[in-house]
Structures are given as structure tokens and as C-alpha cells.
Amino acid sequence: xxxxxxxxxxxxxxxxxxxxxxxxxxxxxxxxxxxxxxxxxxxxxxxxxxxxxxxxxxxxxxxxxxxxxxxxxxxxxxxxxxxxxxxxxxxxxxxxxxxxxxxxxxxxxxxxxxxxxxxxxxxxxxxxxxxxxxxxxxxxxxxxxxxxxxxxxxxxxxxxxxxxxxxxxxxxxxxxxxxxxxxxxxxxxxxxxxxxxxxxxxxxxxxxxxxxxxxxxxxxxxxxxxxxxxxxxxxxxxxxxxxxxxxxxxxxxxxxxxxxxxxxxxxxxxxxxxxxxxxxxxxxxxxxxxxxxxxxxxxxxxxxxxxxxxxxxxxxxx
Length: 318
Ligand SMILES: Cc1ncc(C[n+]2csc(CCOP(=O)(O)OP(=O)(O)O)c2C)c(N)n1
Description:
Structural class: alpha/beta
Helix content: 40-55%
Order of helices and strands: HHEHHEHEHEEEHHEHEHHH
CATH class: Alpha Beta
Distance between the termini: 45 Å
Strand order of the largest sheet: 2-1-3-4-8-7
Largest sheet: 6 strands, parallel
Number of helices: 12
CATH architecture: 3-Layer(aba) Sandwich
Bound molecules: thiamine diphosphate
CATH topology: Rossmann fold
């Protein structure tokens, strides 16, 4: 598959912005500015960037409690996202959703949910809407390996397959659900087997390879648009930090985390693009610097933003 230079650079920039956003959130969390639970996704950046490069602006995504990078890649505004994490009025959900409920329907991010299994169920509703309206829009539904153990995940995949809904199921298999190693609690080695049992074409890819993600999602989205139904992609990756900020990670060794970091998807793609002459070292450095500056601005915006008015507590809710 030939990929235009602009798209390759976009993917690289998107991964850098994703990484720097998460690094910025970690810092703000440590300083006490971000209330509640925060789940970060350093190490998993290739999945959001590769997927978003493969779909159209008017396609939909559904994310998870670890979904900052997906929203950012879909076109989310870092200022509004950081303000949301602070609980400020200028946040993307007016400060009422927080990290685990990031959503921006105006750009096709239907949302995240703290309750596992919700995203796949929502994908059936969004997918059915696209199908009935014949709008040609695809939904990419992101979820972790742990989520594939919920009953609702199986109900959703069954229905999406039976009704040939235009959904791409993108499993970010970082091998842990909180502290539980996935292969300790399932008697299969390939999560793709789960989707195959619903007659959904499935593929396992290296989730640290942004090009592999891009290619798999491109093919899956094309199938969905042709009315051939869902595809399941298992993208194998690593989560570098704890399940949540503050997790002491007694369930895995320092060596395991160090080995994960050796597979850094950004370093790998940077080397690849430079070797192929797509960008120079200086251009890559500039992209990195811009990503760092973006987060500095986002923090400033969040700090300077007002809190929501107490009188607004019951607005924007059902
Ligand atoms: C129905 C339900 N059960 C349990 C939880 C608690 N919980 C929150 S995140 C999580 C692990 C999720 O793992 P995975 O789906 O692999 O995503 P990851 O956190 O690795 O991105 C669990 C068990 C929950 N939120 N909802």
C-alpha cells in the first residue's frame, strides 16, 4: 500500500502529540490539578494515529477510559481536553465528564464510558444508524483486551455480525486488564478467535507498527463501507505506565516495563521515516518541539479557564 508523504508525517505528528499530551497529563496529575482516576496510554500511540489516518473526517469513533489519544487524533482540541481534565467550564464536556468520559460528537467522537462493554454496545447503535441512513460512515470502536471478557462485548459482536454493521472493532491488546494478565484468564492465545466465532473476519497485527494499523483499518473500513459488515483487529501493544496514575504495579516487573519501552512505536517510526527520506532529523525534532509547546499552551489554557457555575450543575445532563 503506497502512503502519501503528508499522511506519513501526519501519523508521526499525531503520535508525538499523543505522547506529549499524556506526559503533560501525568505531570498535571502529580501536581494535583487533575481530580479523579486517570488512565494514560503512553506506548499505545501507533493505534490511534494509524486508525485515524485510515478513516474519514466524518466517520465515528468510540473510545475507552484510556481514550485521550484517540480523541486528540480524531481532531480533539488539546486546550479543551486539558481543561476538561481540570474540570473547567471550557472543557470539551464543559468540565462535567472528565478523563473517562471524553467525547466530542461534533467531530465524530461518540464517546468513552467508564463501564467496560459499553463501547461495543454503542457501536451497534451508531453502526445501525449509518446503515439505515446509508451515509457511508464507518465506526471504529476501540477497546482493551480486558473488555473482550464482558458479556456485552459478545452480544454486540454477535449483533454487528448478524446485521452486517459498518464497524471496525479495534482491540488494543496491552495484555493487562488492571492488574490481570489476559492469558492467565482466557484459554486461547489469539483474541481474534473470539470474533471468528461470530463469523467476523479477524486479523492480529503489531500494534506498535503504525503502518500495520493503518493498513488493517483501511481494509476493514473498506469492507464495512461495501456493506460486508464488521472486522475485528487485535493490535498487540504495551502500556508503559500503570493501569491508572498511582498504580504501584506490583503485578509486573521493572524488566517487563523496560522491554515494553524498547518497542517504542514513535522511535521506531521516526527511524523508519528518516531512513526512507520522508523527513529529516531536524524536521522530526521540530515536530516533537511543536508537540511539547502545544501541551504547555493547553496547561496554560486550563489553568486560566473558569470553573463551571454551580447553577449549571443540572444542565447538559439527562
Ligand atoms: C463492567 C466493568 N467491570 C470492571 C470495571 C473495572 N475496570 C476498569 S478498567 C478495567 C480493565 C480494563 O482492561 P482493558 O479492557 O484491557 O483496557 P485497558 O485498561 O488495558 O486499556 C477494569 C476491570 C469496569 N470499569 N467496568
